[in-house]
Amino acid sequence: MDLIHRPRRLRKTKAIRNLVRETKLSREDLIYPLFVVEGEGIKEEIPSMPGNFHLSIDKLLAEVKKIVDLGILGIILFGIPDQKDEIGSTAWAEDGIIQRACRKIKEAYPELLIITDVCLCQYTSHGHCGTLEEGCLLNDPTIENLAKVAISHAQAGADMVAPSDMMDGRVGAIREGLDQHGYEDIAIISYSAKYASAFYGPFRDAAHSAPQEGDRKSYQMDPANSDEALREIQLDVEEGADIIMVKPALSYLDIIRRAKDNFTLPIAAYNVSGEYAMIKAAAQKGWLDEKVAVLEMLTSIKRAGAEIIITYCAKDVAKWLG
């Protein structure tokens, strides 16, 4: 009799399926984003990102406590200042929104990993990620300012800084600046392959960071390109990145996989606001099961090769994983 292969034997029960599961999602894989605003007594849900909030610093610690209690190891902070100017100078102010938030969180929860977004789009009056001149984003003056931002975040207690601007040479400038100021142990988690994606819409509303004119296609990557991502990652590795990130995640699982296959540094992926909002909207309509869809989505990101997942679903997922 010909032998019949029966792979279904290993799918028969939940216990067997769990036993042989190749990819296992853990709450320890997750980083939760937080949006910090000026003012007092503010906890306002972001309409396009249900379950996520604008938080003033006095409301921030209560939210952080929930995150710590859920066993989530880290957060990434985004600041939304009241004052903006042409170069985004409040981004590196000693009393800036992120600097104050870092100090407050570290004082209360010293073991929590704090990652800070290093970019200028929330801080510039024009909404672009650096210094503009006649409508053109200037690379080298921008990276000088980004280094100032990273240093100020380190001084305030950040454990990692995450440059998300996609300027050429910014990882090297930030590494040099941190080292010169005695912050050799502060890691850089670099947005190495950040695409000019349609999936950032809800975030730009949340962070008040949409460009006043034009777009970011001259510095964020073309979604059609794959080999270019490897070149960008290689440059960041050579400049001193400690972790490399791909953003967005779902439409770029192939990029995550290529990064995993070609580099030995840890890989992070950003499960961005549009990806989150799509599932939330469909779940609210009753078109899919939110829990099942979210866990499938995040498992696919980890299966592609990401060890770290930044996601707005982190709190829900931590509860579901138990």
UniProtKB/TrEMBL annotation:
Its EC number is 4.2.1.24. SUPFAM superfamilies: Aldolase (SSF51569). 5-aminolevulinate 1 binds at residues 204, 216. The keyword Lyase applies. The keyword Lipid biosynthesis does not apply. Its cofactor is Zn(2+). Keywords: Heme biosynthesis, Lyase, Magnesium, Metal-binding, Porphyrin biosynthesis, Zinc. One of its GO terms (biological process) is protoporphyrinogen IX biosynthetic process. Belongs to the ALAD family. Homooctamer. This is Delta-aminolevulinic acid dehydratase. It comes from Orenia metallireducens.
